[in-house]
Amino acid sequence: MSTPSPTRIATALSAEYRARLTGMAREVGFPVGTRLFNEGGHADRFWIVRSGTVGLDVHVPGRQAAVIETLGPGELVGWSWLFPPYTWHFGAEATSPVRAHEFDAAAVRSMMEADPRFGSAMDHWVGQVLARRLVAARVRLLDLYAPHGSGSPL
Question: Which stretches are annotated as coiled coil (predicted)?
Answer without folding.
Answer: none
